[in-house]
């Protein structure tokens, strides 16, 4: 288990230059490959700092709140991928992520009410809104590289937080979902990493 939150690192990339020749023009692809030397912007460490110092039912309470917000952030950013990505497989993958986080949050809301007799709070997603504004300002050539980097950071944060819940939660259903959450975020972050390296998510068609 990691003892500190993963700081979300966004790779801000410049649009790749395309060499042109009068006699042999270089082909222009719909989704340019990510450059090797991106800039780095640090945002925040995600859910772990909000949960790591709690135990027992207090941990369950803090984890549900933190992961509910994290899932909402991931949904909002994935919606940008569905809307703006030049890669149809990435748009489809983004829609899958949106639906999965909706299912996860439905469970979290239900358990929060059952175990704490409260309605899940729904604060404004300020972090996600800032990231959405940043993504909307990118050119088509920049978008996929930056979007995939943002998603990798968010998914690794969720994976890290789920690892804590597997060990510390007192609620069986929450531990079971945390195991699923861990694997799901790991697989999806790996897929985005493959896209950055090869231009393919490497997903199997059902």
Output the CATH topology of the domain at 56-198.
Ferritin
Q: Order of strands side by side in the largest beta sheet?
A: 1-2
Order of helices and strands: EEHHHHHH
- Can you tell me the overall shape? elongated
Counting DSSP H or I runs of 4 or more residues, the number of helices is 6
- Assess the beta-strand content as a share of residues: under 5%
Helical/strand content category: mainly alpha
What portion of residues is helical?
55-70%
Query: Based on the structure given, which CATH architecture of the domain at 56-198 is correct?
Result: Up-down Bundle
Secondary structure elements and their pairing?
Elements: E1 9-12, E2 39-42, H1 48-51, H2 56-84, H3 88-116, H4 126-136, H5 140-168, H6 172-198
Antiparallel strand pairs: 1-2
Descriptive notes:
By secondary structure, this protein is mainly alpha-helical. The chain has a domain at 56-198: Ferritin (Up-down Bundle). Helix content is 63%, strand content 4%. It has 6 helices and 2 strands. The protein has a two-stranded antiparallel sheet with strand order 1-2. Helix 5 packs antiparallel against helix 6. The two termini are 33 Å apart. The model is unreliable at 11-29 (pLDDT under 50).
